[in-house]
Design the sequence.
């Protein structure tokens, strides 16, 4: 009938014992140094860590560089034609990376992936496009188009992102599309202009 609350084996009476080993600072420092060295070596060896900047040449402070080209309908239309001329063959008409010249083993980035927006502020995207990369290969656009065109195409590329509150400037991203090929009739979009 009565609860037996008085068991002597209840937990909670233990002390955490800090061993005197903590005083061996030189040993700890040595181990930490080895770990750090190994970690750095592992990072160097890791090929194309996802989300990393390996292969890109992006100067310090690039993320703070503002896009000097103000976006408007004309800029977006120009960005679209630049995209078609210079980027679509790899990144695909929809930006998902299935263009005919993309390498299926190393597909061109999915430009519609809104979750990568934070990795690609305009200034960073500028240098990715301007300098390109060796592997997987993206040609450096500095030998093909002017800097202002790069900033312009960036505005268009951002409209390809799946809306996730990442492009506040452009609530309705599609610009009138003269080519039916990139136009999604099933979504009820305007296809012919
Ligand atoms: C020859 C094919 C090719 C062409 C042409 C090309 N790209 Fe790329 N692009 C790639 C590859 C490959 C990657 C890197 C994929 C990776 O990081 O694994 C890439 C990555 C990118 C990225 C980085 C995306 C991210 O989330 O890190 C951007 C932005 C980009 N391209 C924009 C463009 C634009 C804009 C153009 C046209 C001016 C263009 N690309 C032309 C192949 C191409």
Sequence:
């Amino acid at each position: 009938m009565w609860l037996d609350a008085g068991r002597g084996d209840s937990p909670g009476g233990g002390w955490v014992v800090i061993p005197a080993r903590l005083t061996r600072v030189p040993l700890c420092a040595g181990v930490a140094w080895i770990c750090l060295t190994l970690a750095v070596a592992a990072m160097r060896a890791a090929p194309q860590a996802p989300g990393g900047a390996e292969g890109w040449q992006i100067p310090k402070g690039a993320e703070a560089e503002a896009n000097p080209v103000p976006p408007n309908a004309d800029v977006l239309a120009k960005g679209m034609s630049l995209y078609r001329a210079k980027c679509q063959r790899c990144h695909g008409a929809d930006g998902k990376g299935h263009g005919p010249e993309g390498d299926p083993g190393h597909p061109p980035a999915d430009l519609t992936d809104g979750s990568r927006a934070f990795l690609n502020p305009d200034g960073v995207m500028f240098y990715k496009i301007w300098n390109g990369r060796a592997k997987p290969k993206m040609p450096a656009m500095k030998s093909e188009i002017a800097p202002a065109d790069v900033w312009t195409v960036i505005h268009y590329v951002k409209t390809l992102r799946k809306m996730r509150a990442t492009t506040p400037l452009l609530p309705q991203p599609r610009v009138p599309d003269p080519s039916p090929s990139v136009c999604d009739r099933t979504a009820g979009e305007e296809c012919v202009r």
Residues 86-87, 89-91, 101, 106, 108-109, 116, 119-120, 125, 128-129, 136-139, 141, 153, 157 surround heme C (CB under 6 Å). The longest helix spans residues 25-45. Confidence is low (pLDDT under 50) at residues 3-14, 33-53.
